[in-house]
Amino acid sequence: MKKFLKQVYTFIPFKKQVFSLVKKLYSPEEKLYRHLYFKGVFRLPVSANKSLLLHHYGHQLENDLFWKGLTGRWEKKSMQIWMELSKGSKVILDIGANTGIYALVSKTINPEAKVIAFEPVKRVFEKLKANINLNNYAITPYPYAVSDHCGEATFYDTDEDHTYSVTIGKDLSQDKRYHPVQVAITTIDEIAREQEQGSIDLIKIDVESHEPEVLKGFSQIGKYHPAILIEILSDDIGSRVQEEIENHGGGYLYFDIDEEKGIRQVDYIRKSSGMNYLLCTETTAKGLRFL
């Protein structure tokens, strides 16, 4: 019955128009609006005078953004920090870009920035490109995974329409829900070399537990000292990330981001209170008024 009702819901017309009107009159709670989704393009405000266009594919992320905006629910503190840091950044890397919301926001806020986005899952990469093209943005998308060496790797994918949790180096061969996919991999060092970047100012890393390997492939952290917004899902991932930062020269402060309670400076990187950490220099932290 549930499957039948879902199919019926798909064919109800004018959902976007009706929900847009509802949103002006009433702000529903997540337990209600998670059922009020549609497929199509909508405009997402970024600031008082800037916005971007986004494809709604009927998924949770787009629905959160439609109903609550960039800083209303989904990674709201992380997004506020990212938006502020995007303003003064010349070169921005979005590693694990998914459908591109972080990359798109950076380009909207700072049109002069060079934004490069990486997404290895083919069907998700196509959605990333569609969002870039929808806004006619000069964002460079790559269908690569980023790791600690260049070449190829295997990840395990599903047949679902969309996914938020694919990682390199995780053997799921015994799980019949997944199948192996070969993907090209690169490193941040190689990106910097190929692009001949004079700076790398801001990086987002969301690669489902592969974050330490991404940083291991960035030996020039101490040269560039970019601000890094990074997902930390466990104590082990956190300690390994901190080890890579310190191995490459250190000079960073660590801020645990709780999306509801705010930002807290810590001495050791462990599982995030929310999802993400900000790793940055003292100068950047003072600019954000965290110190």
Order of helices and strands: HHHEEHHEHEHEEEEHEHHEHEEEH
Please identify which CATH superfamily of the largest domain we are dealing with: Vaccinia Virus protein VP39
* Backbone CA Rg: 19 Å
List low-confidence stretches: none
Averaged pLDDT, please?
89
Say what the CATH topology of the largest domain is: Rossmann fold
- Termini gap: 55 Å
Shape: globular
Strand order of the largest sheet: 5-4-3-9-10-13-11-12
User: Helix count?
Assistant: 12
CATH structural class of the largest domain = Alpha Beta
User: Percent of residues in beta strands?
Assistant: 15-25%
Number of domains: 2
Q: Tell me the number of strands.
A: 13
Sheet with the most strands, sense and barrel status: 8 strands, mixed
The percent range for helix content is 25-40%
Describe, in plain words, how this protein is organized in 3D.
The chain has helices at 2-10, 15-25, 30-33, 60-68, 76-86, 101-109, 122-135, 188-195, 211-216, 221-224, 235-247, 282-287, and strands spanning 39-45, 51-57, 91-95, 114-118, 139-142, 145-146, 151-157, 179-186, 202-205, 227-231, 253-258, 262-266, 276-280. The protein folds into 2 domains: 15-69, no CATH class; 75-145 and 191-287, Rossmann fold. The chain has 12 helices and 13 strands. Helix content is 36%, strand content 24%. Helix 5 packs parallel to helix 6. An 8-stranded mixed sheet has the order 5-4-3-9-10-13-11-12. The protein has a 3-stranded mixed sheet with strand order 6-8-7. Helix 7 (122-135) links the parallel strand 4 (114-118) and strand 5. The chain is α/β, with parallel strands linked by helices and 291 residues long.
